[in-house]
User: What shape does this take?
Amino acid sequence: MPPVQSQPAGRRGQKRTHLHLLLLFLSAAQTHAYIQIPHDLKQAPEFTTQPVSHTAFSLDDVNLACEASGDPSPSFRWVKDGKQFGEVLSESGTLTPHPTMDLHFYQGTYRCYAANELGTAVSNLVHLTTEPVPSLAKVKKQKRRAYEVGESAVLRCNPPKSSVTPKIHWMDMQFHHIPLNERVTISRDGNLYFANLIANDSRDDYTCNAHYINASIILPKEPMSIYVTPSNSVVKNRRAKLHHPAGARSSYLVLRGQTLTLECIPEGLPTPEVHWDRIDSALSPNRTKKLYNNRWLQIDNVLESDDGEYVCTARNSENSVKHHYTVTVEAAPYWTRRPEEHLYAPGETVRLDCQADGIPAPNITWSINGVPVSGTDVDPRRRVSSGKLILSNVEFSDTAVYQCEAVNKHGSILINTHVHVVELPAQILTPDERLYQATAGQTVMLDCRTFGSPLPKIHWEILDSIPALSNAKISQMTNGSLKISNVSEEDSNRYTCSVSETNKSISAELEVLNRTKIVGPPQNLHVIRGSDAILHCKYTVDHNLKSPTVQWKKDGHKITASTSNDKYHEIEGSLKVWDVQMEDMGIYSCEVSTTLDSDTASGYITVQDKPDPPQSLKLSEKMERSVTISWMPSVENNSPVTEYVIEMNEGETPDEGQWQKYRSVSQDIRQLEIHLQPYSKYHFQIRAVNSIGTSAPSESSLSYSTPAAKPDTNPENVMTLSTDPKSMIISWQEMDRRQFNGPGFQYKVFWRRAADSGAHWTESSVSNPPLMVNNTGTFVSFEIKVQAVNDLGAAPEPLTVIGYSGEDFPLEAPSALSVTELQKTSVMVRWSPVRPESVRGHLLGYKIYLRMKGPSGRLRAGRSPAVGNPTVIEVPADAAEKIVSDLQYYSDYTLTITAFNSKGEGPHSEESSFSTPEGAPGPVLFLPFDSPSESEITLRWEAPHKPNGEIRGYLLQYQEVVTGSESPQHVESIDLPAVTEFTLKNLNPESRYTFHLSARNSAGDGAPAIQSGATLLDGEPPSVINMTAGETSVNLSWVPGDRHRNVGFSFRYLKKIEGAEWEESEKINSTQAFYQLQGLDSGVIYHLQVLSGNTSYDWDFKTIYRRELHKSPSNFATEGWFIGLISALVLLLLVLLLLCYIKKSKGGKYSVKDKEEGQGDAANQKLKDDAFGEYRSLESDMEKCSISQPSGCESKRSSNDSLADYGDSVDIQFNEDGSFIGQYSGRRDPRGHDSSGAVSPVNPNMPPPSHSFPTSVTGILGPN
Assistant: This one.
């Protein structure tokens, strides 16, 4: 029943308590309820100590304890074997022996009786067994026994017989225990068993020690000897047998609550393994445990469910043996319901219910004060029915101790129950003005506990006037409590309890709150073993109640969850179960509890896993080429098995060889016939598969070997792989060893000429392919067959195949070779096929060898052809023509053709020559430009990589770029093929132009190269300078003008002190953008000027004052002389590298005129020599440049590049008049796509100053 909160007192139970507890309670409650307890209320006898059955080895062991409480104090008497024994005892009922009596006198069955004026209590029936202290009889010393290695042996202990089973210890003479293992085992009867003997088992001091714990004695028997000699037997292994128990079946009777031990002790070599099973159901790992290396199966606290059939299997590599155990479980009597003790008033009816169970079912009898009811006077008020004793209209004389006893063949049990008939005045024990709180839907008990005999009669009212029982959901209990079912808010009221025919009453207040409810219960989860599970529990509670407690339970047992728990973690009422295992499966309940009520909801976690391995794997119906395998299913682990996988191993042992899948079968199949190969040894194992995965393999079966037989099949893929003329190599696919079917396996090879089908077969036997046959002639056809044979015979007749001896090179070349032009770059090649007999093998096809000799006219000019690798084109054997495409324009070609077989190619045909016509040239290479003035642009280029004919000149088209409209296009025709530069004049300095340049030959104009750019403006010195002063230097930076050509200038500076003189820097480029002025004095104001012709700009700046600091000792690396030396060395190295770079790239100074004349000479020289070889050389050079040396290529591709191409990149030596600057300026784009002089609107991205070479020492080393 849900808890109901009440104040201020604790409530009393519904039934009357045991008499003496009631008295204690009432005494403690007197202060609160003012209960008057009669001082003469007495207590019947109650046992505090009862005797137990045992064995006595001496008079000191004869001690039967019997103690009881009661008021007045009880007296004691004993009954032995149904007769009074000894005198009546007082104070203590413990029975002790008389020192003069014989021990055997006390053997028998005893009961103790404790009595006072309220009745007599009876003890359980006990048995006292007497026997002398065990002792060893004199026996002859056993002779030393000799055994062979591998034999089994038993050393028998045979301890002295006793009603108490001794504890057996096998030890040596030094009192060391004999080691026990799978091979050496001790049985329950004390014998020592050896499954097989080894040489180390030889010894003379095997001693059995029997320990009788109750007798406090250890009896050592005479030592026993074993001598193990080497075995002369040819057979090393021994079949598995059972040492103990004997036979194939045994039966065991065990009582409920006892411990059952089944033994299975095998012998054999190798040592057999023991496996336990239960026939009628799976063996429960929770109910059983295996001891002594699996030799004992033990079940503690036996239950009726353990009744059944068990089997032990002992297995080694030779065989297996089984023993069946029939276990019958019976039970001595045990209580299922006990009678309760109460106080009764005269006239009441007493019902004492006594129920017991057992196997067989026990007989239940009643006694009064130790006297059977059947032996007392007949009383109509007293009757016994189905184990119940009913006393009607009791009187004071019915006060007694009543005994209920249950008996069957396995024992008896007895319980005493006190019935006390007494008369006491009525009293109310429940405090007045108690407040009860409950939640809606609960059943509430309003207490009105009374005390008195006869039992007081009470009634309840609502609001002191309305009878409570007028409400249909209110009832009054026999103990006086008022029961209100399914309470609601309307039941909140005041209730009054009154005792009839007295003025005694109390009041109670009931307050009904909202019930606690789980609104989001835990769900049923299916979880894979090893993963985590989360169970949620959401709830609502009344706002007047404190925060509830959430208690999680698993299968009814509380779970302790915390953040540090390795298994359970509670998060905001939810439960997380980490690393779920099979033992975590069960019902998880969430109980939300307040001080008034609680709500519980449950969810189930089903843990799924791969199934356990199948069991009881057996082989049956063993045939020459098949065997039937059967198995039993095992635990599915909550995911149904979908199939079984049969695996096979052909190794000598299960651990050798490789397990391979034989086949899968559906889950409803339990046996399968497996087809086997002859002359093989097999082992089998089974795996079970479910949705989670595949189980571990079952225990492997015993090996099964099939007998030998003739081969069933012949080898496949018989063929010839001949490579040498006049010989033949016969090959085939080697057969699997499992197809040999027996010993002495070989391949028998047959061959004969195909042209002579009636000829005799030549044969040869080999153990593996291939087979070489000599002196066959070149490319001769043969009939061939290969047959498998072994010592038992040959396979069926094999199929015949046609093969050939070795091929040789073809003898003839294709003839009538002709070439017909189809298009400018493709031709049709035709020829006459070779004669079949000249091929001397299988004709695989033809190979066309195509060689390009160079530009057209080279062969006609009588020049030696260029040497190059030919292009080889293969065509099939049935072809007599082929289109050859992708030829080069304006080129000479030669062509030959050969026939080939697997041996190789035959001779080449006669050479055929042809030429391709001219085609439009390719684009010119590169198109950089310079701007000599504000209205001029000079374009430079190189001849096309693919001229595709004789270059006759160039076509230059250009137009001004005007946003939003088209400007007129200008055309310049350059008819001199050797010219590779052109200057455009009278251009608009404010505009940008697009240039298109195409090469021309007799086939037309080629694809144009496109470039865009603009002219450069005259430069000027900077007028705005940013200055950053240091102690002895100043950093000067400026932004060069857009599209301005480079101009030289210098800085003048003067100390603003009396008598100072002007100093001047070196020449500086306007595009340089940065300069560092060094060698200044610290803390001084300077005046700075920029001079360029007649123009000057002025600024003032002040250097930073250098504070004198205390100098601490330092090493030489911080000294000024060392730093200066290192700086000078770095400067010298950079200058040398710079000079080498300029020398290598430009070759020194030269004027613009010399440069242009040199370009014209180079172009004319190029036109004079039109040799194809040089053209190829140029092409090769271009390819090399483009890949490996892009920087070096610029110098080759441009028209004798000048220093102007590197205006910002090197320290250019200017003339004082600046004439060189006027002709060349700016940085050249290394990709040749644009002029890269000073920054302009068409070239806005000026490189940062740090990327250029500085023009002074300070520019290289950076600021201080």
